[in-house]
Amino acid sequence: MSILETIQSGKESKPPRLMIYGQEGIGKSTFAAAAPNPIFIQTEDGLGEINCKKFPLAKTYDEVMAELTALRDEPHDFQTVVIDSADWLEKLICEDICREYCVKTIDRVPGKFGTGNTYVTARWGEVLDLLQELRDTRGIMPILVAHAKVETFRDPENTSYDRYTPRLLANAAALIVEWCDGVFFASKKLRVTKESSGFNTERGIASAIGAEGGERYIKTIGGPACTAKNRFGLPGELPLSWQAFLDAYRNGVQE
């Protein structure tokens, strides 16, 4: 068969690969729990108030991989797999590598500077390979939940500025963001006003916009404030709601 006969056309009807990240308690896990028939792989103990199906709390990287392998190989009817959270999974990855090399911290792994981080990224590659298999062979949608951190972004065309990113090592975060079809930053709408604090200085006072401490939303397109992206033609902001995402996703896919 000629290699030209393998050329494909048209859109693929595979589940999206998603990451949602943000501050603690914003509603990331609740968002993921509303996805179709989810199973949670929990690496941190934070699902007690959410009605969902979940594996026991994973305490090692090998336990996580065993759970993903079981979802790939054994019969079940789950349609979504949620890793909650990615940053705590990275902690397990680091602990696994430190045990292997008999060191206390990842930066003490023998080799050139950054060798430990390289090993962490390689382990993340193994996780993503299994998630990809689940998506491709069983039609299971992968969702990664993560916390946020503020980091300084050194823009080569402008001055440096701070922005929100997933709380992961830089190389691992870059790999995951590239792999995902949608990376969403969850936050609350706030209004910041300036107030004099004496001695010719000012401070910002934040007040919520909306009920219950502020209207919760997700950013779906990146900018100076945060890392975000989507391949579905979504609006730049959506309510922090699975239904709101699903409606916008369907509209984008149909166009």
TrEMBL record:
Pfam families for the chain: AAA_24
InterPro entries: P-loop_NTPase (IPR027417)
Annotated protein name in UniProt: AAA domain-containing protein
Native source species: Victivallis vadensis
